[in-house]
């Protein structure tokens, strides 16, 4: 299995789920670029637009999301170039954020999937835990899910279950 330390294989694919909330996405991208990525790795910043009827999605929303993700990545262009890390921006539609992340992880054969854990005490925090839990449970084989955030884990162990794969964990939780 690939690792995040100095032993990472070349061309490791790191999928980072980003929102259009720049501050939170920048923390995830900073961690991906500064900690996880090594020379020849590929970081894919993915924003998932949720639309139950993907054919009716407005082109303006899609274009706005693409522009936002590209602008977000502009902050990391120089450091990625110096680290010899390839940076890509993607926007996709799906019926849910969770499903879109897993679909993309399968499509690009991601080695790592970085997701954020909400830092505010409202419904978005709960949604963040639901996305993280779904990704932990449905990650493709060979894809390690890493949840990064400032918020502590839920008190109830059943809120976020541990998923194992042949004796090795497929999840890592990092609190900043």
Can you put this structure into words, describing what you see?
This protein has 5 helices and 8 strands. The protein has one domain: HUPs (Rossmann fold). A 6-stranded parallel β-sheet has the order 3-2-1-4-5-8, with helices on both faces. Strands 6-7 form a two-stranded antiparallel ribbon. With 176 residues, it is α/β, with parallel strands linked by helices. About 10% of the residues have low confidence.
Summarize the structure.
This is Adenine nucleotide alpha hydrolases-like protein. The protein is an alpha/beta fold and 176 residues long.
Oligomer: single chain
Shape: globular
CATH topology call: Rossmann fold
CATH superfamily: HUPs
Helix residue percentage: 25-40%
The domain tally reads 1
Q: Which CATH-level-2 architecture?
A: 3-Layer(aba) Sandwich
């Amino acid at each position: 299995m690939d690792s995040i330390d100095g032993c990472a294989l070349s061309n490791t694919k790191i999928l980072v789920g980003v929102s259009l909330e720049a501050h939170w996405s920048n923390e995830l991208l900073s961690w991906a670029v500064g900690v996880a990525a090594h020379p020849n790795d590929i970081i894919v910043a993915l924003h998932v637009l949720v639309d139950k009827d993907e054919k009716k999605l407005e082109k303006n929303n899609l274009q706005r999301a693409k522009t936002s993700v590209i602008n977000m990545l502009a902050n990391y262009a120089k450091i990625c170039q110096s680290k010899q890390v390839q940076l890509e921006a993607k926007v996709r539609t799906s019926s849910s954020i969770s499903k879109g992340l897993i679909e993309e992880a399968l499509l690009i054969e991601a080695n790592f999937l970085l997701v954020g854990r909400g830092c505010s005490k409202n419904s978005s925090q709960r949604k963040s835990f639901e996305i993280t839990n779904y990704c932990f449970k449905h990650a493709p084989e060979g894809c390690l899910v890493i949840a990064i955030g400032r918020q502590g884990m839920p008190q109830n162990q059943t809120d976020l279950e541990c998923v194992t794969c042949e004796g090795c964990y497929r999840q890592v939780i990092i609190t900043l």
